[in-house]
Amino acid sequence: MKSDNTPAGAGNEDVGLPRNARLGLGLFFLYLLIYAGFVALNAFAAEAMGKPVAAFGGVNFAIVYGMGLIIAAFVLALIYMALCKDIGDAASEGER
Amino acid sequence: MIYHFTWPPFIVFCLFVGAVLAISFYFGSKAKSAKGYYAAHGQIHWFVNGVAFAGDYLSAASFLGICGMIAFYGYDGFLYSIGYLAGWIVALFVIAEPLKRLGKFTFADALDKKFNSRGIKLAAAISTLIVSIFYLIPQMVGAGALVKPLLGFPEYVGVVLVGVVVVLIVVTAGMVSTTYVQFIKGSLLVIFCLILTVMILNRGLTTQGEPGAHEFRTAKLEEVLAKPGAQALALDGDWAIKPGETFALYVRVKNDDGSITTWRRTAKDAPMVMETQTLASIKGADFVNGLPKGQGPGEADLAPVGRISKLPDGKTSTGPLGPLQYLSTLQNSEVVLWGSEVLKAKDGVKTTVYYPKPTKGSAIMVPGGSPTFAGVSPKYTKPDALLKKVDFLSLMLALFCGTASLPHILIRYYTVKDQAAARKSTVVGIGAIGFFYVLTLFLGLGAMTSGAIDITNNAMSAPLLARTFGPMLFAVISAIAFTTVLGTVSGLILASSGAVAHDLMTNYLQMEMSDHAKVRAGKIVAVIVGIIAIILGIMFKEMNPTFLVGWAFNVAASANLPALVMLLFWKRTTKQGITAAITVGLISSLAWLLLSGPAYTSVYHLDAKNALAPFSQPGIVTIPLGFLVLIVVSLLTKPQASVERRAFEAVGG
Fold this sequence. Notes:
By secondary structure, chain A is an all-alpha fold.
């Protein structure tokens, strides 16, 4: 039985964590690249952000890119969650 | 604007607060141990925790501040939404799982687990306290701004009310009740903002104002002066003709009823003038358009503003629109935004003039419209343009790095049972928060064109937008906004309470305390922090909540992120390196902020030109500085024998 001084997560270590961490870092740098591009465009090419994007009903690039960043964060998070689970399962299988 | 007390908002407000307190008392009986008080026994379901993340994170700054900023300036407010959400990527991909594995109750636990260093405990606890208090200020300011129109009380009453209710929530059941309050608040906020967005899209866009709304006129100057009974006033001080100009920018006309109409030329020396609104304070009394502020006979109040002046193809109304149609139609319309300036007459009377600025939609939907981000606009050609761009980059960096460094967010990782739950709850949090931030754009633009904006208080834009759909929606949205403040403040006070009672008293000062005494100490600290928050909320009531939150992100990212990241990913990190990085990051970012232009203007009431910091957001300097200090100090100090292996293990190597 755990005492109250035991960390809440102790004893529940993920077997696949090394790969999870590497996967996390990979996705982090991918998102960082997209975010840095957005920030740089806003800072140094703000006029480009005003161009309408025909594929999105003429809504300008600033809105499309901004919404895209929000959606990309969620999509990458889902990918991470799905792949982490696969890795954990595979590792657990290997242990058996 | 003057707000009146009405029963529906008050009843809904009481129901919300009553429900929140009932939850707290219910869970109060279940949280007797320190683990229950600080970490909800690690037994919160990941989905509940994920929505509670949203409830914790979507603060007054997110809801009221961002909507208000979009309503007043357009796209610039949305930049905050994007930055706030992007920060969750750092939290999920880099911090969440290792932090969950290393920590127990607080962020300091995780940092210190490998080293058992009193220096780290002290530095991390102080950092947690300062960041949480910085973050508390805008929440309290938001509460004050809300209660005024909602209940008709002065601002300080709102601040005191939030302080008292939150202390009750935290003291009764700690993290358990805080989690459920945040879960309920997060759910309600997203659901009702979605409902409001659907109503905005269904209403579409129109050039016609509400029946009975004041119509601001544009006229020829000669016609204004020729009106029977109109008497042109002499202009002096800041009102007078500027050197090198032929005409004064303003014309002031006294009317039959004693009111003064102030007209502003549509352009320098132009013959056309636009009607403005003025607010002056004389010997402590407010005057609107020359009359005492009020709504009785012989009094005047500022009129609500915000409307579309031209729609594409000469239409007067669009009818229901889809989300993309709404944005593209607005982009091709003309909207009347409002600017303001303070003018001082020869007799010393200062008058704030609020003037209309008809602006193309295409200019509203790009960055650079607000004073905060004006430097990124291609039209900004002042010599400090480059510094303004660096300031913008610095803020966006701080928002990106700050989320994963906020102690009140980090402690939520200890409320779930394992790392998989930590990961899943972060994904749920990202989904809920991201969806909400998409809605902020529509809420802000909806408010901008609703004809309901209070020109003196942009934080009220979202609730006032709701009022255009009926008093009940106003009541619900206002009550949710108030609960928003409660949820976030609860988390902040709990984080502060943990920093003092657990990190400082138990771990740093090594005071011998029973489990029960630890909980009691935490509760006493919660009361003290609540009182400090009330005082600071009243002191800083004039500052914009979103701007203040930006400051908190800078301090959090500078003080905490270098230590967290390097601990997890650099095996050469030493305890001295961590202590030094937190200390230097904290002091440098705080000093920078307190020596910046906005602090000079809003806190010290001095000229921003004399500010010592070259730009206002320190993150771009102080975050790398934290990393640099950690690396240098770690290289100069000897690591503990087993540190290399343990640090390597932190990332699962």
